[in-house]
Amino acid sequence: MTPAARVQAAIDILDQVVAAARGQGASADRLAAEWFRQRRFVGSKDRRAIRELVWSAIRACGEVPASGRAALLRLAIDDPSLASLFDGSTYGPAPIAAGEPVAEAGVMPRWLADTMAASGLDTNEQAALLGRAPLDIRVNTLKTDRDTLASDLPVAAETTAAPHGLRLPLGTAAESWPAFADGLFEVQDTGSQLACAALGAMPGESVVDLCAGAGGKTLALAAAMGNVGRLLACDIDRARLQRLAPRAERAGALAETRLLDPGREPEALADWQGQADAVLVDAPCSGTGTWRRNPEARWRLTPAAVQRYQAMQARVLDVAAGLVRPGGRIGFITCSLLDAEGADGLAAFLARHPGFRVDPVVAPLGRAHGGGWRLSPYHDGTDGFFFARIVRV
Question: Does the residue 126 lie in any domain?
């Protein structure tokens, strides 16, 4: 492809991304993958260049752009070499017309920037949410240890602050390695590993992963427990929960699964009421702490959506409260940095449940915040998280 044709291809993909953001459609990753699937003639070098243009444009536009072309023009404003490719050539974009719409520059929509600031995140913190995420893995201690795996990997790996974490060079195809197929590690951000570890799951305990999804944190819990005790993974999404079984088999992890009906979780978990030593609540949220991986997500978020997430979090935490035995604990995790989905939710839970108190968390990265602990890309080089440990007294 010519450089101009790459620009037009990026515009075509961005048009789909913008439409999906407005209509809550597919993610940018899925849209780009489908675009390339339908055009198998596009070579790997062209694919990399097109993807770089697409994601650079997404990161450059604070508000949802009017079109893919407007998004690319935002980049061209500061890059004369890119602007010169709007030349009207075959398969290339039309020349830039005087006064045509150009997307507004910025880190995020203004209402979100204000909400972030009210949550204690300054402009540096906000800008870091759109950086490039590292590639971290969690060593599966059911099968190996960190030093052994690091010495056997085909690339150099750095240890992270998580006890079993390693950081690999960006772009590493780690999931294609035999070590991954053998279950020696899972791809998991260091922040996610630390948040999960804060629950303190131990061998012999009865533990519930209440919002297990595809089971990434379930596998970490199984490893922490050494497969000794009882571990139950639950979710309301059948398709996601079904992905846990093959992952657990690969990892050698032991966990039961249970599909829940929304709104009827206590009935489905009647046998666990007041029995759990620990319950992990990886609560539904807006995912503002993971924007480095899907930056277009900030275009999809609305104040009404944040309110819905607050309500869902409150519901799940109330379910968790019924499962915990006296002296047991809840691990509340959210991968959002908005206080509305973290510190405020924790305070509201404690007000509803006076029989619970916060057990202070101290982690090797991050800082205390709102009764819990906060990790952020700017300060810690991890995804953004708020987490807290709550004990039933």
Answer: no
Residue 228, pLDDT score = 98
Same domain, 143 and 231: no
Name the residues annotated as catalytic: 335
Angle (deg, nearest 10), helices 28-37 and 44-60 = 150
Nearest to 181, CA basis, from 212, 143, 238, 145:
143
Residue 224: phi and psi, rounded to 5, are: -60, -35
Are 76 and 83 contacting, i.e. CB atoms less than 8 angstroms apart?
yes
* pLDDT for position 141: 98
Q: How confident is the model over 43-98, as pLDDT tens digits?
A: 999 999 999 999 999 999 999 999 999 999 999 999 999 999 999 999 999 999 99
Cα–Cα distance, 382 to 340 (Å, whole number): 21
Consecutive 10-residue runs of the chain (393 residues): their mean pLDDT?
96 97 93 95 94 96 96 95 96 95 95 97 96 96 98 97 97 96 98 98 98 96 98 96 96 97 95 98 96 94 96 97 98 98 98 97 96 98 98 97
**pTM across the whole model:** 0.94
273 lies in the same domain as 321: yes
Residues 6+ apart with CB under 8 A from 344: 310, 370
Cβ(140)–Cβ(251) below 8 Å: yes
Q: Could you give the CA distance from residue 188 to residue 359 in angstroms, rounded to a whole number?
A: 25
Contact by Cβ (8 Å): 291, 62 = no
Structural domain for 146, as ranges: 135-187
In a domain, 251, yes or no: yes
Residue 9 phi/psi, 5° resolution?
-65, -45
In a domain, 60, yes or no: yes
> Given CA atoms 89, 76, 26, 171 in this order, what sign does their dihedral have?
positive
Same structural domain for residues 212 and 352?
yes
